[in-house]
Amino acid sequence: MATRDFLLEIGTEELPSRFVPPALEQLRDEVAAALGSWRLEFDSIRATGTPRRLVLLVEGLAEKQPDRRVEVQGPPKQACFDAEGRPTKALEGFAKAQGVDVAQVTFAETEKGIRATIAVDEPGRPAAEVLAEILPRVALCPNFPKTMRWAHRKVRYGRPIRWLVALLGSEVVPFAIEDIHSGRVSRGHRFLGQEAVEIPSADAYRQTMREQYVMVDHEERREAIRAQVLAAVNQAGGVPMHLEEVLEENLYLVEWPTAFTGRFSEEFLGLPHVVPTTVMRKHQKYFPVATAEGELLPCFVAVRNGGVEHIEEVIRGNQIVVHGRLRDAVFFFRNDLDRTLADRAKDLERVVFIHGLGSLAEKTRRVEALTLSVARALGLDGADAEHARRAAELCKVDLTTNLVIEFTSLQGILGGVYAARGGESPAVAAAIGEHYRPASADDELPATAAGCALSIADKMDTVAGVLSIGEAPTGTADPHGVRRRLQGIAAMVLRKSLPLDIMGLAREALAHYGCQDTAVEGQLADLLRQRAEAVLELHGIGMDLRDAALGVEWGRLGQALAVARAVQALDTEDPEVLTAAWRAATRPANIISKRESDSIEIDASLFESESEGALLESVGRMETVADVFDRRVVKAFLEERPRTIESQALIALRSLALEAPVVDGFFDEVMVMAEDPRLRANRLAMLYRAHLAVTRIADLHALRRD
Amino acid sequence: MTFQETLMTLHRFWSDRGCVIEQPYDMEMGAGTMAPATFIRALGPEPYRVAYVQPSRRPADARYGENPYRLARYFQYQVILKPSPDDVQETYIESLAALGFDPLKHDIRFVEDDWENPSLGAGGVGWEVWMDGMEITQFTYFQQVGGIEVDPVCAEITYGPERLVMYMQDVDHYKDIRWSDAVPYGAVRQVEEYQISAYGFEVADTEMLYRHFEDYEREAARTLEAGLPLAAYELVLKCSHTFNLLDARGAVSVSERTALIGRVRKLASHVARLWLTQREEAGWPLLALAQKGGEA
Question: Is the complex ipTM more than 0.90?
Answer without folding.
Answer: yes
